[in-house]
Design brief:
The structure is a single chain. The chain is mainly α. The chain has one domain. Helix content is 71%, strand content 4%. Strands 1-2 form a two-stranded antiparallel sheet. The longest helix is centred in the N-terminal third of the chain and has 21 residues. It is globular and about 50 Å long.
Length: 148
C-alpha cells in the first residue's frame, strides 16, 4: 500500500467518483481549509438564523456552506450532504443547478411572512419598507429563475 493524501490505497485501485470530486475540490493548504471551514460554519449559522429572521435568505447561505465545506472538510461536507434538510437542496443545486420546488415555496413564504411582519411592526420609515420590499422581491425572483 502506498500512502496518499486521502488515505491508504494501492496505486492500482482507481479513485471512486466521490473520492475524485473530493480530491479535486479540497483545498491543498491546511490553513486555507480552516478558513473554508470557518466561512462554512458562519454561513451555516446565518442560513439557520435566516429561517426565522427577515432580510437573511436561508438558501444561499446553506449553498455557500456546502461549497465551503467541500473545500475545507470532507467530514463536514459529507454531513451536509447527508443532512435531512440541507442535503437534498445542496445535491440538487450542485448536480443539476436547480432549486427544488418545495424549497422555493418555503423560501418565498418565509421571505413574505418575515418581511411583512418586520415592515408592519418594526420599521417606521416608508423608504426602508420600500427598500425591504425591493430586496425581498429581488431574492424571490432570483430563487424562481432556477428550474425546479
Amino acid at each position: 500500500m502506498v500512502r496518499t493524501g486521502t488515505g491508504s490505497r494501492s496505486p492500482e485501485s482507481p479513485l471512486t467518483e466521490r473520492e475524485e470530486i473530493t480530491r479535486a475540490t479540497l483545498a491543498r493548504s491546511r490553513s486555507l481549509r480552516y478558513v473554508y471551514i470557518l466561512l462554512g460554519v458562519i454561513s451555516l449559522v446565518l442560513g439557520i438564523v435566516g429561517v426565522v429572521t427577515p432580510i437573511l435568505p436561508t438558501t444561499p447561505f446553506i449553498l455557500l456552506s456546502g461549497f465551503c465545506f467541500a473545500r475545507g472538510s470532507e467530514r463536514l461536507h459529507d454531513w451536509m450532504l447527508g443532512h435531512r434538510y440541507f442535503g437534498p437542496m445542496i445535491k440538487a443545486f450542485r448536480d443539476e443547478r436547480r432549486i427544488p420546488f418545495k424549497v422555493k415555496i418555503f423560501a418565498t413564504l418565509m421571505i413574505a411572512i418575515t418581511m411583512s411582519i418586520t415592515a408592519i411592526f418594526v420599521v417606521p420609515l416608508l423608504a426602508v419598507k420600500l427598500g425591504m420590499a425591493a430586496v425581498g422581491l429581488g431574492v424571490v425572483w432570483y430563487i424562481w429563475t432556477f428550474r425546479n
